[in-house]
Design a protein that fits this description.
This is Pirin family protein. The protein folds into 2 domains: about 160 residues, Jelly Rolls, CATH 2.60.120.10; about 100 residues, Jelly Rolls. It is globular and about 60 Å long. About 5% of the residues lie in helices and about 50% in strands. Strands 1, 13, 15, 16, 17, 19, 22 and 24 form an 8-stranded antiparallel sheet that branches. It has a 7-stranded antiparallel sheet with strand order 2-3-4-11-6-9-12, with no helix packed on it. Strands 14-18-23-20-21 form a 5-stranded antiparallel sheet, with no helix packed on it.
C-alpha cells in the first residue's frame, strides 16, 4: 500500500510509424509509473479525420482493449475474428503466447475517428490467445450530491458492485464515467487497488484537482471513494486494479518477463512463425519488427 496520491501524468505525442501516418497521445507507460493495476498502456488516437490502416502485427503477454469514441473500426485477427466495432462496444483481444491482428477504419476515405486503445498485462499463466466482442455492457447510476446523477459503463472488471462480462485475469477496473453539467458525485473505489482517472472530454475537478483534457490523475491506493465534479459536463475514464506483481518487460507490441522472452517473440515474428498465426482476409502484408536496442531489456520499475 502506497497511500493516496495526486500525481498528474501528461500525455505525449507519439508517431505510430510505418505507412500509417498517424500520431497518438500516449499516457501509459509513464517513465515513473509503468503500470496502474495491470493496465500497462493507454493511447488516444483522434479526434481526427483519417484513414487508419494498421496492417497485421503481433502481440504477446497482454490484452488489447479497444474503446471507440467516434467512428467505426474493423478488427481482424489470427483466431478468425472479423468484426466492426462501434461506440459503446468493446473489443477485447487476449494475446497469450502469441496472436496477430489488423485494425482499419471502416470505409475507403478519411473518416472521423477517435478511440482509446489500452493494454492489460497478463499473468504468465494466461497463454491461450482469444478474442471477444461485447456489444452490451452494464451501466451503473451514480447518485449525485449536487446536480443530476452520473452514469458509468463498466468496460472491464468490477466497478460499484457490477461486473463487466469481459474476461479478466487479474483484479481490475475500467469504466467510462459520464457527468452531466453541474454534477458532483463520489466514485466508489476499492481500497486495496490503485486508481487513475483520465479526462476524455469536457471539464472536471477530480479530488479537487482541475483536470486538463487527456491528462491522467494518478490517485494511488487506500481510497474508498473520490469526488468528481463538472461545470459543463465531462467524459472520464477510470482505470485501476490490484498492483501487478510480476516482472514486466515491454518492447514494441510485446509484454514478457525477460529480455529472452522479447527476443524469442521478435525472432518468431520476423521468421513468419506459426506462433502468431495468419490474420484472416490478409495476404503477405505485415508490419515488420523494429530493430532491438543495443542493450539488455530490463523489467520496468515504478519510481514513486
Amino acid at each position: 500500500m502506497i497511500g493516496p496520491r495526486r500525481l498528474t501524468l501528461e500525455p505525449r505525442e507519439v508517431p505510430l510509424g510505418g505507412v500509417r501516418n498517424m500520431f497518438v497521445l500516449r499516457t501509459l507507460p509513464h517513465r515513473n509509473l509503468p503500470t496502474i493495476g495491470a493496465w500497462c498502456f493507454l493511447d488516444r488516437f483522434g479526434p481526427a479525420d483519417t484513414r487508419m490502416r494498421v496492417e497485421p502485427h503481433p502481440h504477446i503477454g497482454l490484452q488489447t482493449v479497444t474503446w471507440p469514441l467516434v467512428g467505426e473500426i474493423r478488427h481482424r485477427d489470427a483466431v478468425g475474428s472479423d468484426v466492426d466495432l462501434r461506440r459503446g462496444q468493446l473489443n477485447l483481444m487476449t494475446a497469450g503466447y502469441g496472436i496477430s491482428h489488423s485494425e482499419y477504419s471502416v470505409g475507403e476515405g478519411a473518416r472521423p475517428l477517435d478511440a482509446l486503445q489500452l493494454w492489460v498485462a497478463l499473468p504468465s499463466s494466461a497463454t491461450t490467445p482469444g478474442f471477444e466482442q461485447h456489444t452490451e455492457l452494464p451501466v451503473v447510476t451514480l447518485p449525485a450530491a449536487d446536480g443530476e446523477d452520473a452514469e458509468a459503463t463498466v468496460v472491464l472488471g468490477r466497478f460499484a458492485g457490477v461486473d463487466s462480462p469481459a474476461t479478466v485475469y487479474t483484479p481490475i477496473v475500467g469504466a467510462e464515467i459520464r457527468l452531466p453539467a453541474g454534477t458532483r458525485v463520489e466514485l466508489p473505489l476499492t481500497v486495496a487497488w490503485e486508481h487513475a482517472i483520465v479526462l476524455v472530454e469536457g471539464d472536471a475537478h477530480v479530488a479537487a484537482h482541475p483536470m486538463e483534457q487527456n491528462e491522467m490523475l494518478y490517485l494511488g491506493d487506500s481510497r474508498d471513494a473520490v469526488e468528481v465534479m463538472s461545470e459543463e459536463g465531462a467524459l472520464l475514464f477510470l482505470l485501476g486494479g490490484a498492483p501487478f506483481d510480476e516482472d514486466l518487460v515491454m518492447w514494441w507490441n510485446f509484454a514478457g518477463r525477460s529480455h529472452e522472452d522479447i527476443v524469442a517473440a521478435r525472432d518468431a515474428w520476423e521468421a513468419g512463425s506459426e506462433r502468431f498465426g495468419h490474420v484472416i482476409g490478409h495476404g503477405d502484408e505485415r508490419i515488420p519488427a523494429p530493430p532491438l536496442p543495443p542493450v539488455r531489456l530490463m523489467p520496468r520499475t515504478r519510481k514513486l
